Structure formats: C-alpha cells, structure tokens
C-alpha cells in the first residue's frame, strides 16, 4: 500500500514531530511513526466503506419511502439499480473488508452518517447517475464503471470528506491521495467472477517495513552528526535560517547515502527533491539539490559511498 516515497514522508513527519517537541525519547517518535503507518489501513477501510454505506443509505431511503402511508407509485415501485449494483454488493460482502472493519472497530460512518447522505445526494444529482439509472439493462461492466465514476468524480475529490479526515487524524491528509489512487485501481480491475475485494497490506514486503524502521532509527541516532555533514557546505545560506523541514530532509538523505548500501544516490536525491517541493519552501528544492549534489560528489571522492551493485553511485 505504501510506496518508498510515502514511507520517507512518514519518517520525515515523525522526525519533525520529535524536533518540534524537543524530545530525546527515541521510542516516542517511533511509536508515532508506527501509529501513523498502521492508521493508513484504517483510512483505506473508511474510504472503501463509503461506497458500501452509500448503497445501504439508499436502501434505507427506499424502505422508508415504501412504508409511507400515502406512498406514491414511484415510491412503492422504486428503481433499485443502485442498491442492486453488483460491485457495491461485492464490496459489502467481501470478508477481507468486513472482518478488518470489525477487528478495528471502525464505526465512524454510523456516527457521521450525514457525510454519507450528502454524498448520496450529490451522486443522485449527477449526470453519471441519471445516465446509469436510465439504461434499459446493465451489465457487470456497467455497474463497475458507474462505481468507478462516482468514486473518481464525487467521492474522492469531495472537500467535506477531505476536511473530515483532516480533522480526524492530521496525517491522513497526506495519505488520502495515495489511498484514493489504490481504491480507484482496485475498482477498475474488478471482474464479475471475483468473490471479494482484498484489503492490501500496509507494506509491499518485509524489506519496506524494515526500511521505514531503519531510516527513522539511523537518522535520529545520528541527528547531530548528519547536521555537521552539511553545516559548512552552505556558503550562501545561513544555517540558522534554513527551513527546519529542510534540515530534516538533508539528514535523511545523508543517512540514505551513508547507511543504505542498496539505494542509488541518484534515487535518494530525486526522492528528497520531490518531497521538498511538496512539503517545504518554494526555493528549498534548489537549495537541497545543490547541497546534496556537492555532498555526494565529496563522498564519492572520499570513498564513503559504500554502495552495493553496479551503477549505484
């Protein structure tokens, strides 16, 4: 679920939290990192189950309308295409999803069901919905495309949902685009023969899990030493005025150069430049690129880059 760049961002956030709190307790930062990483799966489940709850909410509305004392013909004989959508039912009946939701006791949508109602209303006002409901009959491919479209155009970009997740857990705001992309891809790849949708693992493999833990530990255990590596290599920049997040990015990049033998230097520099563009000042990426380029060349000349594999320097 998490790629290497997102793992780096998680580590950066944990180191920033430690620096802001002036804490020297390494375990506090590591606990923050672990929680932040584990919470990603909760976010995935909550976003995915929005679609399940939308179907349930429509089914509830239909049931209530049919029980009206003076129900209209349309209310007594409603178009049930949305509640009978095979993809939505597949999501609702997926043991992989339901068991995880129960295990983690994720009951947010039963408490904040107003968000589900708002989304359902927006869906019903959309052209996608009108076109889907007007079809004389639908195939599984039609059901799937409808779900992909409402997720992509209505659910994923919804500002109220973004605000809800941001208020609930601050780190989720950075995770949401990643989760939305994963879910969109899963939905597009669903087949009629599928019996359930599997919840993806947080890490691709054990190597990525170890990378997250080791990058945090090795950076924080050498925090001051890594600062000295670039302290006098910024002649045009006052080190006291370098953005705090930039000093963390530089430390992490230096850590990768010196402590992670299998990661090419170019990959390290490119990854942290992209992170700086997103999380730091407008000029930070230029500054970081210059510093890391000079440092990597100096390390190569000094023989300090002990990289394993052809072309890793």
From TrEMBL:
UniProt protein name: Transcription antitermination factor NusB
Coiled coil: none
Similarity remark: Belongs to the NusB family.
Keyword vocabulary terms for this entry: RNA-binding, Transcription, Transcription antitermination, Transcription regulation
Keyword Cell membrane applies: no
Residue span, NusB/RsmB/TIM44 domain: 204-297
Gene Ontology CC: one annotated term: cytosol
UniProt cross-references to Gene3D superfamilies, sorted A to Z: NusB-like (1.10.940.10)
Source species: Myroides pelagicus
MF annotations from Gene Ontology: RNA binding
Top-level taxon of the source organism: Bacteria
Residues spanning the membrane: none
Biological process annotations from GO: DNA-templated transcription termination; transcription antitermination
